Amino acid sequence: MRVGVLGVGRIGAFHARALAGIEAVEQVVVADADRARADEFAVRAGVEAAGPDEVLGRVDAVVVAAPTAAHVEMLRRVADAGLPVLCEKPIALDPAVAREAVAYVEARGAGLQVGFQRRFDPVYLAARAAVRAGSLGTVTRVHAVSVDPRPPHPEFVPTSGGIYRDSHIHDFDIVPWVTGVPIVEVTAIGANRGAEVFREHDDVDVSAVLFRLADGTLGTAHAGRQHEPGYDVRLELAGTAGTHTGGGVTEGDFLTRFDAAYRAELAAFVDFASGRIASPCPGADALAAQAVAEACVVSRREGRTVRVG
Ligand SMILES: NC(=O)c1ccc[n+]([C@@H]2O[C@H](COP(=O)([O-])OP(=O)(O)OC[C@H]3O[C@@H](n4cnc5c(N)ncnc54)[C@H](O)[C@@H]3O)[C@@H](O)[C@H]2O)c1
Questions:
Q1: How far apart are CA 167 and CA 190, in angstroms?
Q2: What is the CA(13)–ligand 1 centre distance, in A?
Q3: Of 42, 68, 121, 138, whose CB has the highest number of CB atoms within 10 Å?
């Protein structure tokens, strides 16, 4: 299989190198709006570089890792070329635009996987297995934590969509995936306790979300943008018969914490693109997580509990 990677910034560079290490991948072709960056990266990583318009004619599958604002146009082009695609999250900041893009890709039958790598992380796999094994009894309570070690680059903040769409979105994907039950109601609060850049963009750098799942399970999710000892990613489940906890503070950032998960996600994408498995993270699931984030945005703005969807 030959795989194209569109965008070789932080995550795209990681993905391209990881793909090059997968046995079933014969060739990786990278492209970037900044051609010099693509060329330099290709030399360093031992892959090939091409112009963004050339890539699609040279590969069997594509990873979209450009900034979010470029995703929809790329998805359309990749779908028109009939190629399966792994698109980094989020598909688009505007949920209506994301819905249209998913419908467009699906109508062309090319296949879409969205980049929620926690589905491949041992902490969340173990939590899901515990729920499925029934060892917790009836799950009644969930607690999720996602706290970055340091704030993102200030230029990223206005493009991120805010803490619910950028950071909590991973919780809103993984909690229904682990429990098998969708989130139906949220109450979101937030605070500014660190870098002023978040306040300037009507964003917060600490947040807490109280949520309810469709079966009555109650949950809390905490996110934050600054925790110097490291990246704090955790999940706790409690049920009538037991509790399950996983994760904790690790040194480094998301690329180190989720190194193995990203690699497993890419290996799964190769299997998906080869037709061996169904999409491990379909567009509908990404849209569902996005709907929860949107409900949080409304909840914080209006100071009330909001039904999802
Ligand atoms: N799943 C995760 O955990 C995770 C983590 C980080 C980023 N992301 C997502 O990945 C995407 C990229 O984030 P990043 O942090 O790597 O961004 P980045 O800014 O580091 O890199 C983006 C790259 O894309 C290039 N680019 C811009 N427009 C382009 C275009 N039209 N065609 C080709 N290349 C183009 C830029 O020159 C840059 O090299 C975002 O959507 C982000 O939300 C996901």
A1: 13
A2: 9
A3: 121
- Which of 5, 11, 118 to mutate to test ligand 1, by most ligand atoms within 8 A of the CB atom? 11
Q: What percent of the chain has pLDDT over 70?
A: 100
On whether the pTM is more than 0.85, the answer is yes
Distance between CA atoms of 186 and 306, rounded to whole angstroms? 5
Coil/strand/helix, residue 258: coil
Cα–Cα–Cα angle for 262, 212, 307, nearest 5°?
100
Mean pLDDT, residues 204-233: 97
| H or E stretch covering 237 | strand 231-239
Closest atom, ligand 1, to C-alpha of 70: 31
Does 2-115 match 118-257+281-307 in CATH topology? Answer: no
Structure tokens at 265: 């996600």
Backbone angles phi, psi at 296, to 5 degrees: -65, -40
Between the CA of 10 and the centroid of ligand 1 the distance, in Å, is: 7
Q: How far is the CA of 271 from the centre of ligand 1 (A)?
A: 23
Query: How many whole angstroms from 75 Cα to the centroid of ligand 1?
Result: 14
- The alpha carbon of 1 and the centre of ligand 1 are apart by a number of angstroms equal to 23
Segment holding 117, helix H or strand E: none
Q: Where are the domains of the chain?
A: 2-115, 118-257+281-307
CA distance 89 to 86: 9
User: Measuring from each residue's beta carbon to the nearest atom of ligand 1, which residues come in under 6 Å?
Assistant: 6-12, 31-34, 37, 52, 65-68, 70, 88-89, 115, 117, 254
For the structural domain made of 2-115, what CATH number should be given?
A: 3.40.50.720
Top-tier CATH class for 118-257+281-307: alpha beta
Mean pLDDT, rounded, of the chain: 97
